[in-house]
Amino acid sequence: EQMRLVASIAHLNSVANFRRKGRDDLGADVLVDALAALQRCDTAESFGGSTELLRAARILATDVVESFQALRLYLREVYRCLERVDPHLCNNAGLVARLVDWEESWEVGTRYV
User: Fold this and answer.
1) Average pLDDT value for residue range 51-61
2) Direct distance between the N- and C-terminal alpha carbons of the chain, in angstroms, rounded to an integer
3) Is the pLDDT of residue 49 over 80?
4) In this model, does residue 34 exceed pLDDT 80?
5) Phi-psi category of 17—alpha, beta or left, where left has phi over 0 and alpha has psi -120 to 50?
6) What are phi and psi of 64, to 5 degrees?
7) Number of separate domains in the chain
């Protein structure tokens, strides 16, 4: 289910995100890797580990997860009022802002998480 949602978000990004590249090739593996990185950070910190590397990994992974959660929440909210969604998706400022954040976070996550 989560994989299908990520694929749908990537497609939505390709048609609505005019402020960035509109990439549709960012897959669910980015989210899976970010969640795994957060678990590794939690485990390392529970054993007393607290390095700059752990902090950086946590920040990057959290950005990926939070951008996904923000889009999920937005989609839930607009589901209740679809009549107010502009059919020209790039005209929906809230959607575009979240897609920009999603794409930026996931591009960084792809490379560094």
Assistant:
1) 93
2) 22
3) no
4) yes
5) beta
6) -60, -50
7) 1
Selection from 69, 95, 97, 96 nearest residue 82 by Cα: 95
Q: Which of 46, 29, 26 is nearest to 99 (CA)?
A: 26
Query: What is the predicted pLDDT for the residue at 71?
Result: 97
CA distance 17 to 8: 13
**Domain range spanning residue 81?**
2-112
> Please, how many CA atoms are within 13 Å of residue 50, restricted to the half-sphere of its CB?
2
Give Cα separations from 14 to 9, 11, 26, 81, 100 (angstroms).
9, 5, 10, 23, 11
Give the chain's mean pLDDT: 94
* Total-model pTM: 0.91
Residues 101-110: tens digit of each pLDDT: 999 999 999 9
Nearest CA to 100 out of 9, 35, 38, 28 is that of 9
Q: Which two tokens stand for residue 101?
A: 């954040």
